[in-house]
Design goal:
Elements: H1 2-13, H2 17-20, H3 25-36, H4 38-42, H5 51-69, H6 73-96, H7 98-125, E1 130-134, E2 137-140, H8 148-165, H9 172-188, H10 191-212, H11 219-241, H12 253-261, H13 270-276, H14 278-293, E3 305-308, E4 311-314, H15 318-339, H16 345-353, H17 358-377, H18 387-408
Antiparallel strand pairs: 1-2, 3-4
């Protein structure tokens, strides 16, 4: 079963295979894994007492209620069924058996390294493995801009921690993974992804400063982590974004857009925000209009959108989009899914610090970071009902629950209390 989960997870992290090969490739392979692993799955006892299921249930209920009143009820029901499979089928398997979350992390390591190799082939040698698909935004044969950074984010903190905690030859694989994950994040050129780098570094600094009190590392290894990580990340950023031939500001993607946005709205005024990013300002207005028009059940999944030169575009703020699409019940439920873990964040971090091995600590810290990434990315991206967007969240819930359970010595602990 571990092998099936690894292969499927690798395919899920290759998110844009559903564009280049087949729209339902991740769902078809998930179904194939269920069929092949059915004898094992039927023998399992699943952990269904977890607060995340309550939030998931109300979110799906809100989606079904909005489907009844929407112009496309069949589409709403379809998206609700997909979330049932993700948040009950996938979540229950990973929460009950955290070893599958570890297996998925292993697949993410492979995906990050492979994508980095594809990026290198395209950027250095002009091979048809990666292309500059938008100004300052690279894509590979497996992941296009918008999904490439997510692969790197899944293992960034994991590899960051292990690169300093491991000794001898065992350190090379985490360093290679760290370089690959940073290449995916920076190469994507997304503003969301680039903003995550300092957030990840601050999170990591908090981790190592708190761990110094427990003597998990000495001062020399702490300095090695700081200098090595800074050099690797800055070097990759320079190589991909500022190397000769890509120095024009219009080709620097997320960095240039961040520089243009910040000075445009010094007082966070409406005029400044609209001048900095008119599309997102229009999305905000569309979301408010949708909430006013459908105050109770929403207008149906995907209905809160704007018209652009490329066609209709769903509002790229999940919290507002869900409120406009699914009403207040959906908005509250999604917020509970995205942010509920914060109520026990300190306890989870404490349990992670006390884990006996560096590998366990790396996994648990990474689980916390995945939940933080999900909540942060929801500020800039729409709700998805695809495995590629939810698998990192499921991994995070699984690992955080495992951290609490290992600390409490019980299998009934949950992420939230």
């Amino acid at each position: 079963m571990n092998f099936l989960v690894w292969c499927w997870s690798f395919l899920v992290f290759a998110a844009d295979l559903k564009v280049t090969l087949w729209l339902y490739i991740h769902w078809a392979t998930a179904g194939a894994c269920v069929v092949l692993g059915l004898p094992t799955l039927l023998r399992q006892r699943y952990r269904l007492r977890h607060p995340v299921y309550l939030a998931a249930t109300t979110l799906i209920l809100a989606m079904l209620l909005s489907a009844v009143t929407s112009p496309e009820p069949a589409e709403g029901a379809k998206q609700a069924l997909k979330l049932v499979a993700i948040l009950f089928g996938g979540m229950s398997l990973f929460v009950t058996h955290p070893k599958f979350a570890r297996t998925a992390i292993s697949a993410a390591v492979a995906a990050a390294v492979v994508n980095a190799a594809l990026l290198g082939g395209g950027a250095l040698f002009g091979l048809p493995t990666a292309y500059l698909l938008a100004p300052g935004r690279w894509g590979t044969a497996l992941n296009w801009p918008g999904s490439l950074w997510r692969v790197g984010a899944v293992v960034f903190v994991y590899s960051l921690y292990r690169s300093g905690a491991e000794r001898g030859r065992r350190r090379w694989l985490p360093l290679l993974t760290l370089a690959g994950s940073a290449a995916c994040i920076v190469g994507d050129g997304s503003r969301t992804a680039l903003a995550l780098i300092p957030i990840a570094v601050l999170f990591w600094l908090y981790v190592i400063i708190s761990e110094r009190r427990l003597n998990h590392m000495d001062e020399a290894r702490l300095l090695l982590r700081l200098s090595g990580t800074a050099i690797a990340t800055l070097g990759l950023a320079w190589f991909i974004l500022l190397r000769p031939g890509v120095q024009d500001e219009s080709a620097q993607g997320g960095l240039a857009r961040i520089r243009r946005t910040l000075p445009s709205a010094p007082a966070f005024s409406t005029e400044g925000a609209e001048g900095a990013d008119p599309a997102r300002m229009e999305m905000l207005q569309a979301a408010i209009a949708a909430v006013v028009e459908h105050p109770f059940t929403g207008g149906g999944i995907g209905s809160t959108r704007i018209d652009t030169e490329f066609g209709p575009m769903v509002v790229h703020v999940s919290y507002l989009q869900v409120w406009g699409d699914l009403g207040p019940l959906g908005a509250f439920s999604f917020a509970a899914l995205a942010l509920g873990w914060l109520t026990s964040a300190r306890a989870i971090m404490r349990a992670a610090r006390l884990a006996p091995s560096a590998l366990e600590r790396a996994l648990y810290y990474n689980g916390v970071f995945q939940l933080a990434v999900f909540a942060f990315a929801a500020l800039f991206h729409p709700l998805s009902t695809e495995w590629s967007e939810w698998l990192p969240y499921i991994i995070g819930v699984s690992l955080c629950t495992a951290a609490r359970s290992s600390r409490a010595d019980t299998s009934n602990e949950a992420v939230w209390e």
